[in-house]
Amino acid sequence: MSEEIIDESVEKSLIQGIIDEIIGSPLNLILVGIITFLIYKIFKKRQPSEPAPPEPELPKLKRDFTVQELKAFDGKQEDGRVLVAVNGNVYDVTKGKRFYGPGGPYAAFGGKDASRGLATFSVTANEEIEYDDLSDLSPAEMESVNEWEMQFKEKYDFVGRLLRPGEQPSSYSEDEEDEQNSSDKSGGEEKLIKESNEKPEE
Hints:
It contains seven helices and four strands. By secondary structure, it is of the alpha+beta class.
């Protein structure tokens, strides 16, 4: 029993010694305050914050773009729409704005043709004014572009094509847009439905 009393008194004197040491020095008080503040900040960050309200849904866009026209859709404009071209096709990546919009890790691709950057694993976009036909990419790099394009098809809405210099834009009707959206969601390839004036066989 006397050993227990001795142990308790040793613990009390040890705790009292630590408290006296902390209180006795202004430097120790400052360090304890800083440590307490840092622990508070760490735990505060771990608490779930309220999710940001969803952005209003923009109307569907369906048209073709030149490289120059595409630059206007980098997320910095009033409506905040972000378009990215991959392998000649343009996708609306606005719902992935935290990645492709201003300040995002892939913001360099917003409003640009991202094909070459995705092929070479470089977060830089094609800054050329002219269309990049990707003809100098290796087969492995083209395979990478095709894989990225499949991911874009699955995640984002197809908007239209990236036009080569001198190429005329296609016109999209509402029926084509509805059919395009359903084929995009099922993972099908984008096909433009064009009316043709074929003569009936005689």
